[in-house]
Amino acid sequence: LQLDFWREPRGPGQPVDIRVPFSSLQALKVHLEANAISYSIMIEDVQALVDEEKKEMLRSRSGLPLTTNTFDYSTYHTLEEIYSFMDLLVAENPNLVSKVEIGRSTENRPLYVLKFSTGGTNRPAIWIDTGIHSREWVTQASGVWFAKQIVQDHNNNQGVAPILDNMDIFLEIVTNPDGFAYTQTQNRMWRKTRSRHSGSLCIGVDPNRNWDAGFGAAGASSNPCSETYHGPYANSEPEVKSIVNFVKSHGNIKAFVSIHSYSQLLLYPYGYTTTPAPDQKEL
Amino acid sequence: SAAMELEASGAVGGRVAALATGYLGYRRGGPGRGLELRSLRRARRQDVCDVGHKYYLELELQDIQDKDSTISCTAEVLYHLGTKSLAPDVQVTLQGELREAEEEEKEFYNRIRSLDKELVAENIPDSHGHVPPEMEPIFLLARAASGYVIWQNSTENTKFQLAQIKEVKQVKRSDEYLEFDYMILLHEMVSQEIIPWQMRVLWHPQHGVQVTQDKRQPKHPSG
């Protein structure tokens, strides 16, 4: 039967622990039952534990986080580490957090949004995005921190917990993953997407000038080589189009917050005009 | 015409304040001391016929290394009409005394003078925003010197800030001055451009900072 004794037989009345190869399982059960020997299962599948441990060891060697409690929130992380964090947060909080892929970037990276929800169907929701300008690293880092904070608030019934009673929160941490990867490997100061549009020598569109609100108006450039290039047309960038599609199909987004860094300013609509928005006072 | 009150938190006020701060940094900054804008209290603008636009500012500055150490100042900035090659006229008056930086500057001076090989360094701060302590004076010197470049190249539609030292190389000298060749990155807020700029900087504890040569560089060829 090729039984592997983890606790050897020591005499009558003493328990014995055995690792049983799958192929011998039935035969051993039959034998024990036929001889009225009681048994219980301590570990259902040893191989699964071994595999998990191997994965964890590989992860810790490669620097990937093991839990969102041991994750270092005070340092910048790679795209891989942030995506790993998201999966961990979902795995640790399956009843609160889920991950939605809303599209793909120009370079085919997945665009992930975390959904925080305590239930309901298509509840009114708040949207938050970070990292739309890839060089603003503190914003992606903040997004990671927000995600953990939302979970902690919910667990401790404080902070944003009351919001989650009636609303969902959608959080896109790496809104411009191509740009982010580029800042990590090639140019720390890269801001735009990494799209190529015909007829231009320069790469990238400023995703925050690509929205269909006052498109091409003041504050944006029609020069493809400019840092504020608005793109050939509104929503030309898949990173932006994916968000637009998501928001439109959701139909119940009540607040839309986009996080940027370096200014210490709170801005409200609309960026292309000095005329105050109708609800300026409330904002 | 009469001076018109501006919104102190508005975009224009911010640009003029950044220019005045850069100018002051050049005049009074050095490897032992850096000043940054804490708040713009008041801004007024006056159109001077056939000359340009004059701004009157009331600012509060803080010491980069000790943010609780603040100083008030007033500034007058005249942006000249038309011609692009004329730098704005800037006058800054401090209301109070700046912290003494003599000891730190002397220490830095002696340290560099006693090096076996000329100093070479890059990426200050690094990608994580970190400046190694021994590089702090090199960074502050660049900040002071960049104030000159900012002053010389500012218009009412620009707002420059030093983003990073890409590379710095000490230049060997036979006299008592220290000289550094810097390649810096300036961030221009309105266009969001990151502009490489080369500058030659002379410094001496008793003679302050001097930019002897500077040149805007072509943009990073990253496509």
UniProtKB/TrEMBL annotation, chain A:
Q: Which GO terms describe its molecular function?
A: metallocarboxypeptidase activity; zinc ion binding
The segment(s) forming the Peptidase M14 domain are 75-283
Kindly list the cofactors needed. Answer: Zn(2+)
Task: Offer a single GO CC term for the protein.
Answer: extracellular space
E.C. code: 3.4.17.1
Q: Does the keyword Hydrolase apply?
A: yes
Catalytic activity, reaction form: Release of a C-terminal amino acid, but little or no action with -Asp, -Glu, -Arg, -Lys or -Pro
- Sorted UniProt keywords: Carboxypeptidase, Disulfide bond, Hydrolase, Metal-binding, Metalloprotease, Protease, Signal, Zinc
- Return one Gene Ontology term, BP aspect: proteolysis
InterPro entries named among the record's database cross-references: CARBOXYPEPT_ZN_1, CARBOXYPEPT_ZN_2, M14A-like_propep, M14A_act_pep, Peptidase_M14
Principal EC category: hydrolase
Entry's SMART domains?
Zn_pept (SM00631)
Instruction: List the Pfam families hit by this protein, alphabetically.
Output: Peptidase_M14 (PF00246), Propep_M14 (PF02244)
Q: Which family does it belong to?
A: Belongs to the peptidase M14 family.
Which protein, by its recorded name, is this? Carboxypeptidase A1
Which organism is this protein's natural source? Turnix velox (Little buttonquail)
UniProtKB/TrEMBL annotation, chain B:
Q: What highest taxon heads this organism's lineage?
A: Eukaryota
Kindly state which keywords UniProt assigns to this record, in alphabetical order.
Protease inhibitor, Repeat
Q: Cystatin LXN-type domain spans which residues?
A: 4-103, 120-223
PROSITE patterns linked to this entry: CYSTATIN_LXN
Entry's Gene Ontology molecular function annotations: metalloendopeptidase inhibitor activity
Q: Which InterPro entries does this UniProt record tie to the protein? A: CYSTATIN_LXN, Cystatin_sf, Latexin
Instruction: Spell out the Pfam families in the cross-references.
Output: LXN (PF06907)
The positions making up the signal sequence are none
Give me the Gene Ontology terms describing cellular component.
Answer: extracellular space
Assigned protein family? Belongs to the protease inhibitor I47 (latexin) family.
Its name, as the record gives it, is LXN protein
Tell me which species this is from: Turnix velox (Little buttonquail)
